[in-house]
Amino acid sequence: MALFDLPADQLRNYRSGTAEPPDFDAFWDKTLTETRAHPLAVTFEPVDTPLTGVRVWDVTFAGYGGHPVKGWFTAPADATGPLPVVVQYPGYNGGRGLPHSWGLWPLAGYAHLAVDVRGQGGGDTPDPVGSAPSTAGFMTRGVEHQDTYFYRRVHADAVRAVEAARSHPLADPTRTVAVGGSQGGGITLAVGALVPDLAAVAVDVPFLCHFERAVTITDANPYGEIGRYLTVHRGAEGTVLRTLGYVDGVFFAARGRAPALFSVGLMDDVCPPSTVYAAYNAYAGEKRIEVYPFNRHEGGGAHHEAVRLRWVGEVLGRG
Fold first, then answer.
1. Which end of the chain is more exposed for a tag (fewer CB within 10 A), N or C?
2. Is there a catalytic annotation at residue 167?
């Protein structure tokens, strides 16, 4: 894939012209109030693993609707706390996977929660909420209205994940960081807006941003799911885009206040660079972006993990 989006000088200043829903804040206040009406009901069950340098807990907490959400909580084996805690959200169709996949942060001296996205294949958390007709995937589940849309539940779960992580005896709630790439980056933007006292957020090649542009310049999945839905549901563009506006990372970014590290691949046809810059340029807090000119959706890969690890340490005064 060669460069296909706007030239670099235009990307640096690119902004979305899409109007946000007038009741955006009221919608999310209502969603979180309804979610918090259910007890958090968090449990941490110790897990016996061969990871001698890391302790692992099997986590369950109540997300949207009181539905159980799973995760892995890990910490250095000899830690006594309090530790800064990193909450990490997965990419599309990812999840908590297996505990040994999450060694980076505890090896660096952090507590870490790897959390599922309900219904997606990489985890252990179902989505018990049904859906009207949709295309294959998750992007159009309940897209007829913001109240029924899939990512309303996902973002509410993500906020509760922060609350669950902060409740662990080893966690220092004042040093909580949210991180994620692709879908996880879009979720991180939402959490950064909905949890106002985070210490930092790291947003890598974020998905779920500037839908109005994304669905017209790429047919790669997952944005392609929306286009396929609209090929069948002719004339539903206004309804669909209105619903997507309630989960658009650009509007969450405008409410973010924690220091933020973004990343973008300029040849990324999954999350086009202009959609990433739309969120980055809207971000209201202190921010920095790492640009990978010849990379696609992998962004900076392991190289960027090292950049992110050092940046988080610097923000928390550990670097």
1. C
2. no
Catalytic residue flag (residue 134): no
Selecting among 127, 157, 182, 210, the annotated active-site residue is 182
Unique residue bearing structure tokens 């169709």: 93
Dist. CA 177–CA 169, nearest whole Å: 17
Instruction: Exactly one of 268, 269, 274, 304 is catalytic; name it.
Output: 268
Question: Nearest CA to 264 among 303, 221, 293?
Answer: 293
For 151, other C-beta atoms within 10 Å of its C-beta total 26
How far apart (Å, rounded) are the C-alpha atoms in residues 156 and 64?
6
Q: Is 92 annotated as a binding residue?
A: yes
**Residue 297: active-site member:** yes
Q: Please, which pLDDT band fits residue 4 given cuts at 50, 70 and 90? A: confident
Q: What ranges in the chain are assigned the alpha helix state H?
A: 8-11, 24-36, 104-107, 150-166, 183-194, 211-217, 223-232, 237-245, 249-253, 273-282, 301-315
What is the rounded CA–CA span in Å between residue 59 and residue 166? 12
Q: Which CATH superfamily is domain 19-315 in?
A: Alpha/Beta hydrolase fold, catalytic domain (3.40.50.1820)
Percentage of the chain lying above the pLDDT 90 cut:
94
